[in-house]
Design a protein that fits this description.
rod-shaped; five-stranded mixed beta sheet; 11 strands; alpha+beta; 9% strand; 683 residues; four-stranded antiparallel beta sheet
């Protein structure tokens, strides 16, 4: 409700303002007649009907809402002039209906009212519609009213009144309506209208008007009618160079100055004819100069608008080209990065394939580690890398370093001083968290320490960390996320290699060794004996086979249980192993039977001496579970020096010799009968 009341107050204020403006316009219009000299006074000398131009501008802006104020203003103006009557009612009605008709016709022709003077087609339609509505509506009705009473009216007088009404209204709509309409629709242009160039143009136009429309010019013979058209170049310049509002204000100023000078009897129009005829000349001049300024200004505005739109389009195209160029460059960079990434990935995959092939063919860990580091440096040539594996003594074994081994050796030496800094006694998961924060090893190379070294733990099946991938990048840090991924991927691959080798070693050990004593089993012994025999043959020495059976072991096993028997076998095996050298073989065939292959025999006495030591080792006191145990070995000896003899036959000979020792009381050694005879003959 308050909003509706506020709107009503605004509407009443607008109509009141229109009424006051209409009164002032009518007073100013009749003022032209008052300016005329008494000798040439013509009561109906009205060159331009100012209220018509103002009212049309407000009707175009606000519609029929201003019609009541205009009608009341017209009636009030007549009342103030003392001529209020029935004719005033009809005059006021015609004056109000005429702009409403023009507005309706413009809308009918789909003319945009807000930009009517900013586009050439719209301005042209405005001129045509306004002229048609005025001369075929207002001028006809107004001319008839001015010609009353009709019984005394002649055709020339009727045409004269029709022209007077039509030209006065048309001049007003062409001169007054454009600046008022532009000011109402573009208040920002109104605030900027009186620019320096606009003021200069208006001042120069007034100066030209004074020069043309003064009596000294008439006296000098410069009073011919074409002299008035010296104002046209200024209007043309303004229409092509200035804003529409500036041109409209210039035209209005010039027209008012020319009308004032002509009303006072000055200028070419006053000199050309008497006031009743000079009025039509002046109105024709007003229509010509206003139409020129209006059309040129609209054309220039349309051209400037098209130029701005074209510039905006060009700028938009430039921006679009820049955006597309940037997108193309970005896509090109992405493509190059993808190509580089693809090449990098291809290099990594090929490296993995090589490593897996080496793993499948049974290559050793040092060779595979060297290949792994080589493939890592193939991807990142500026990196130095090595794999560090601790041995049984706690020293770090460096694999794959190549020519950089000295640098990593210094690092490994420092790690031996404080191994907990890198290898705390924790699980791999904890170690990985700590190793994620790479640290710098200092003090090894005081002159040129170089970039800091980074350590990546090598996971080995959930066990404690036993290997590390050491990397020294060229920049001291990994530049891209895929560098970190490459390091982690290399560490995982190294873990797979080490895990595989350890698993193979465990499987090979399980397949070739006795699970209880750790000595070779039958399969492992048969695999290893051929190599030992070949080595002895190459050294010019002989290989002795000792077949051992523990006397009394079954009694101990039955009396004390299998656990004690197993512990006894482990102890006996350990005592045998302590008597053997690195080239000798110890095998548990099964139960309490052992086989020893002693390499490097030069004469049978050496074999007898070893047999005596094994017998002595078994006879030394022992106690398991507080139980005194007494076992003695029966040993059969056979020399293995015939390459054509199968190892199975040699074992059978040694086994037969062992039973010979056992039949003779046990706890002694015996040679195979055939070999004993051969040894006796050779002796």
């Amino acid at each position: 409700m308050p909003k509706d009341r506020h709107r009503l107050f605004r509407l009443l204020a607008l109509n009141l303002a229109i009424g006051l403006i209409y009164i002032l316009g009518m007073r100013a219009t009749f003022g032209f007649s008052e300016l005329m000299p008494a000798a040439s006074h013509w009561a109906t000398w009205i060159p331009i009907w100012l209220p018509a131009g103002v009212l049309l501008a407000f009707v175009l802006r606000y519609g029929a809402w201003v019609a009541p104020g205009a009608w009341l203003g017209s009636m009030a103006a007549d009342a103030l002039a003392g001529s209020l009557g029935q004719a005033s009612f009809f005059f006021s009605t015609i004056h109000v209906l005429q702009p409403l008709l023009i507005r309706a016709l413009l809308i009918r022709w789909r003319t945009p009212l807000d930009t009517i003077f900013l586009q050439t087609p719209s301005a042209f339609r405005f001129i045509v519609i306004t002229a048609g509505a005025i001369f075929f509506f207002g001028a006809i009705l107004g001319g008839l009213m001015l010609s009353m009473p009709f019984d005394q009216t002649t055709l020339p007088r009727l045409l004269e009144n029709w022209c007077r009404w039509g030209l006065a209204d048309l001049a007003a709509t062409l001169v007054i309506t454009p600046p008022v309409h532009l000011a109402l629709n573009n208040r920002s242009d109104l605030r900027q209208a009186l620019s320096a160039s606009a003021l200069l143009a208006i001042s120069f136009g007034l100066l030209l008007t004074v020069l043309v429309f003064v009596n000294p010019m008439r006296e000098s013979g410069f009073s011919v009618l074409p002299a008035s058209f010296v104002l046209f170049p200024l209007v043309v310049w303004s229409g092509l160079r200035q804003r529409p509002l500036d041109t409209a204000l210039l035209v209005t100023t010039l027209v008012m100055a020319v009308c004032t000078a002509t009303a006072t009897g000055e200028g070419p129009f006053a000199a050309a004819a008497d006031p009743s005829r000079s009025l039509f000349l002046l109105q024709g001049f007003i229509v010509a100069i206003s139409v020129t300024g209006l059309l040129l200004s609209a054309t220039n505005t349309e051209l400037l608008t098209a130029q701005r739109q074209l510039r905006a389009i060009v700028d938009g195209l430039d921006l679009l080209v820049d955006e597309r160029t940037a997108e193309l460059n970005q896509a090109n960079r992405r493509l190059q990065a993808e190509i580089a990434s693809g090449q990098r990935t291809g290099t990594i995959i090929r490296g993995h394939s090589v490593i897996m092939e080496m793993l499948a063919t049974g290559r050793g860990i040092p060779d595979i580690a060297a290949c792994l580091v080589k493939e890592l440096r193939r991807v990142e040539p500026s990196w130095r890398a090595a794999i560090l594996i601790p041995d049984d003594t706690g020293k770090w074994r460096i694999l794959g370093a190549g020519s950089d081994e000295a640098s990593f050796a210094r690092t490994a030496a420092m790690l031996r001083r404080d191994p907990s800094a890198l290898l705390p006694n924790t699980a791999v998961a904890t170690m990985q968290k700590r190793a994620a924060h790479a640290f710098q090893i200092r003090g090894a190379e005081p002159a040129d320490p170089g970039p800091p070294m980074h350590f990546e733990p090598i996971p080995l099946g959930g066990e404690e960390l036993v290997a590390v991938l050491a990397i020294r990048p060229s920049t001291g840090s990994f530049a891209e996320p895929f560098d970190i991924e490459l390091v982690q991927d290399t560490a995982r691959l190294a873990g797979i290699v080490l895990d595989n080798r350890r698993s193979q070693e465990r499987l090979r050990h399980a397949a070739t060794h006795d699970t209880l004593t750790g000595a070779l089993n039958r399969h492992g012994f048969f695999d290893a004996i051929t190599g030992r025999f070949s080595a002895s043959q190459a050294e010019g020495k002989r290989l002795a086979i000792f077949y051992i059976d523990l006397d009394g072991f079954k009694v101990v096993n039955d009396a004390c249980g299998h656990e004690v028997g197993d512990r006894l076998l482990v102890e006996i095996s350990g005592r045998f192993a302590s008597l053997l050298g690195p080239k000798d073989l110890l095998c548990r065939l099964g139960g309490d039977e052992f086989v020893v292959a002693h390499a490097g025999i030069t004469d049978p006495a050496a074999a007898d001496a070893l047999a005596d030591r094994m017998i002595a080792a078994c006879r030394s006191p022992r106690s398991l579970k507080d139980t005194a145990l007494a076992v003695t070995p029966s040993i059969g000896i056979c020399l293995y020096d015939d390459p054509a003899a199968p190892i199975g036959a040699i074992l059978d000979q040694a086994d037969a010799a062992m039973y010979s020792a056992k039949r003779n009381g046990g706890g002694r050694a015996a040679w195979h009968e055939q070999q004993q005879s051969e040894l006796a003959r050779s002796a």
